[in-house]
Design a protein that fits this description.
Rossmann fold, six-stranded mixed sheet, four-stranded mixed sheet
């Protein structure tokens, strides 16, 4: 670990009293930090901003319950990732940063880049991908863009935020190799490439310790190995033990605890339990952040909302994915639609778009383009619109009959389907992977009656598509932001040629997902009580499907175009520290188009279980018809390494590697092998690498011996071949290198402060009644058409009792909570 540098603002810190220092490490209110006027320390505002500035002008909350000031709603991370365009991410970041700066916001809380391990994760729409390289590189581009305006970015949620159920208490149990290669690699890439000035910890535990107090994550890795030198902030209400958080390198607890944790810090310093030098270091970092960002905000002016909206439309265009485009009766693909087409627009989402998720990222858009209005103002003849179904799933024969009647008057049916606002939200995971039954029933009736049904699908994560082969085309919008309606109309009519690619896999059925709960005995999502077991290890997403040859509906990286591309002339320069892969892409069609060329690498043989292929780089290129581009992708050394948990070091296995280039993980156009030296065969200087290879990385003879030892280990068992549905307890314990933690609460034990409100189901009649009341409130709110409020009830249900005092600003005291727990313990 690097030597601790001197304080940057030592004189300012010296002027502060102990009480003032403690106060600075906690919020002044919901969104602002404390100020100390006599020492010249200003207050700054932090606010949500993964895809738009959510600045609340009135009553504040964390979950989007109260309205925020109008701001540009860009596509969510799940949609942005489908561009596979780092330059676009940087451009969006600059636009977000400029809007935040104009609103007086110093820290924009985003982007989110946790791994989409399971498509049922309620917050999947706020994360980029199932792949850490794609997630990390895109997030780094956004961070660079935001911070170019002087506003600080705040990547989140560090680390392993894999589920929303019990997210404030669940223990994400994951082996060290998978932790490093899958769940931390995206964050490492952001820290190294973009140097974010802040970073937010997750609510959950990681291998038994809350992320905000986890010295392995925050001290050893984040600061020690990666060199992060910014401010670590808790998620809102994410503090568990403030002293432990400070010792682990967390500087800022948000929101205000009403002075509760300030007093704990003062008492800890005075009793000798906390070295005041630790507090001084935290305060120094906070002072630096406040002074630098406050200076950057001086003279800022509001952005032009019309220009921002145009940018949101252009961004949405680049994020649309054409999943299917079958030939019509004339042999030509159904899309794009000719100007003379007579279309019926069906589906509630055409008129009232589903354009963002729910929760803390909820943006109050400055404008909102619906696809129906955009289509009516375009060249097509829209013969009519029919809702077709109730948005929240209630069956209606009348609406379906109206849709069928309208379809009979049109050449093409544009059917807008998707997940409603209650399906995807912060604080609650999805219950299944299906579209609502009323939508599926409508698709079945329409495809029996009409042979040109084009589905426009909205949602922040994959769904099962049993009708995929029955419809003429599928255009996936994900959650495309306030300009998505215009973007969809442009894509359907050919004014824009879609070029997006999937950043997550669409499985055929949920049971195929590597972490699916329905698969015994290793169904591990979501963790129900104490733990979420990552028995899938490194075999997440496409890494699993390709290794096990599991058929999928649409593979990782898939996306069609209105033109065709050819690949040729592969040239590989592979070295121990990476290399370059070059090739030519030619547009052989009649339209200008955009192609995302993808590079995948895998060893022919490996001393450890290894996925059949892994993304190693990508490039988005725009090419005119008949023209070609020479594409060169840099391949860094990490693509050739695996993490050796026994040695606590990154290793490079020498030998032949497959080099594959193509249009998706399954559509490989060029392929070859290249040989690289392993650890000890080259670069044996005996010095530790400075490229993030880990603490204790060995070279020379030590490395040779270590690799030989690994190669000598048995690689038998289900996990060795990626068969993660059959990883049993003994094999998972061996993978962890320790016993498996207890997964369930003991219902006979009395509830304590570290238990959650959800565990009231183990309490007496009073406790069970309180929990039943909360669930009833959620059902009533959903029935009343208030999905955001209904989902937010789960925020309280999943909250540990210990966090209620801080989250309520001390209005609900710990003593009152303890009294309540004594009441519900009585049998």
């Amino acid at each position: 670990m690097a030597k601790t540098p001197a304080l940057r603002h030592a004189e300012t810190v010296a002027r502060l009293s102990l009480e003032e220092k403690a106060a600075l490490t906690s919020g002044a209110n919901f969104w602002n930090t404390e100020s100390v006027d006599h020492a010249g320390v200003p207050s700054i505002m932090l606010t949500d901003g993964p895809h738009g500035v959510r600045k609340q002008g009135g009553k504040s909350d964390h979950l989007g319950l109260n309205a925020s000031l109008p701001a540009t709603c860009f596509p969510t991370a799940a949609a942005l990732a489908q561009s596979w365009d780092v330059d676009l991410m940087e451009r969006v970041g600059r636009l977000l940063g400029a809007e935040a700066r104009g609103a007086g916001v110093a820290v924009l809380l985003g982007p989110g880049l946790n791994i989409v391990r399971n498509p049922l994760g309620g917050r999947s729409f706020e994360y980029f991908s199932e792949d850490p390289r794609l997630s990390g590189d895109l997030a780094a581009g956004m961070v660079r863009g935001i911070q170019s305006t002087g506003v600080a970015a705040c990547p989140k949620h560090f680390a392993v935020n894999g589920q929303e159920h019990l997210r404030m208490s669940i223990d994400e149990v994951v082996d060290e190799r998978s932790l490093r290669e899958i769940y931390l690699e995206g964050f490492r890439r952001v820290v190294r490439q973009a140097r974010p000035r802040t970073l937010m910890t997750s609510y959950n535990k990681v291998n038994g310790t809350y992320a905000n107090e986890n010295t392995h994550l925050l001290v050893d890795i984040l600061r020690g190995e990666w060199g992060f030198d910014g401010v670590v902030v808790t998620d809102w209400g994410g503090n568990h033990d403030r002293i432990a958080g400070l010792l682990a390198g967390n500087q800022l607890e948000m929101p205000s605890s009403g002075g509760v944790t300030d007093r704990l810090i003062v008492d800890a310093v005075r009793s000798g339990r906390l070295d005041e030098a630790v507090l001084d270091r935290a305060v120094d970092d906070l002072v630096a952040l406040a002074l630098e960002t406050s200076s950057a905000l001086e003279g800022a002016e509001p952005v032009d909302p019309d220009a921002q909206h145009r940018a949101a439309v252009d961004t949405a265009r680049r994020c649309l994915v054409l999943l299917r485009n079958a030939p019509g009766p004339d042999g030509a693909p159904v899309l794009p639609l000719p100007a003379s087409a007579r279309v019926a627009v069906i589906g509630d989402f055409a008129e009232t778009p589903r354009y963002q998720g729910a929760g803390s990222s909820l943006v109050n858009p400055t404008r909102l383009d619906g696809a129906l209005g955009a289509l009516r103002s375009g060249p097509l003849e829209v013969v009519g619109f029919a809702r077709g179904f109730h948005r929240f799933g209630r069956p209606s024969r009348r609406l379906a009959d109206q849709a069928l009647a309208l379809a009979g008057r049109a050449d093409t049916v544009l059917l807008f389907l998707g997940l409603d606002e209650s399906s995807e939200a912060e604080g609650v995971d999805r219950e299944h992977l299906r579209l609502p039954d009323n939508q599926l029933a409508l698709v079945e009736r329409l495809t029996r009656a009409h042979d040109r049904v084009v589905v426009v699908l909205a949602g922040g994560a994959p769904v099962e598509l049993p009708f995929a082969e029955d419809v003429a085309a599928v255009l996936y919008t994900s959650l495309a932001g306030q300009g998505g309606g215009t973007a969809v109309a442009d894509a359907l009519t050919g004014r824009h040629n879609p070029g997006g690619k999937l950043a997550v896999t669409f499985p055929v059925r949920y049971a195929d997902v590597p972490s699916a709960r329905s698969v015994a005995p290793a169904g591990t999502f979501p963790g129900r009580e104490r733990t979420a077991e990552h028995r899938d290890g490194v075999f997440v997403g496409y890494r699993y499907y390709t290794t096990r040859d599991v058929p999928v509906r649409y593979c990782f990286g898939h996306g069609l175009s209105y033109t065709e591309f050819e690949y040729a002339d592969l040239a590989v320069d592979l070295r121990a520290d990476g290399g370059t892969v070059a090739f030519t892409v030619r547009n052989t069609g009649s339209r200008a188009g955009r192609e995302v060329a993808q590079l995948y690498v895998a060893p022919e043989a490996s001393p450890v279980p290894h996925a059949a292929t892994a993304l190693a780089g990508f490039a988005a290129v725009e090419i005119e018809p008949g023209h070609e581009r020479r594409v060169e992708i840099d391949l860094d050394g990490r693509a050739l390494e695996y993490f050796d948990a026994d040695a606590d070091a990154w290793r490079r296995h020498g030998g032949a590697y497959w080099i594959r280039v193509g249009a998706s993980v399954a559509d490989v156009r060029l392929e070859t092998t290249a040989t690289v030296d392993g650890d000890g065969d080259a670069d044996a200087s005996g010095e530790e690498s400075d490229d993030g290879r880990g603490r204790g990385a060995r070279t020379g003879s030590e490395a040779v011996e270590a690799v030989e030892a690994v190669q000598g280990k048995r690689t038998e068992g289900a996990y060795a071949v990626g068969d993660v549905h059959r990883v049993g307890d003994a094999e998972f314990a061996a993978l962890l290198g320790r016993p498996i933690p207890v997964a369930s609460w003991d219902p006979r034990a009395p509830l304590g402060l570290d238990d959650t409100v959800a565990q009231l189901r183990h309490a007496n009649l009073l406790g069970r009644g309180v929990l039943a009341l909360l669930h009833t409130a959620r059902r009533v709110l959903r029935a009343a058409g208030r999905p955001h409020a209904a989902n937010n009830v789960m925020f309280l249900v999943n909250m540990p009792f210990a966090k209620i005092e801080g989250y309520s600003g001390g209005k609900v005291s710990r003593r009152a909570l303890q009294r309540f727990l004594r009441l519900v313990r009585r049998r």
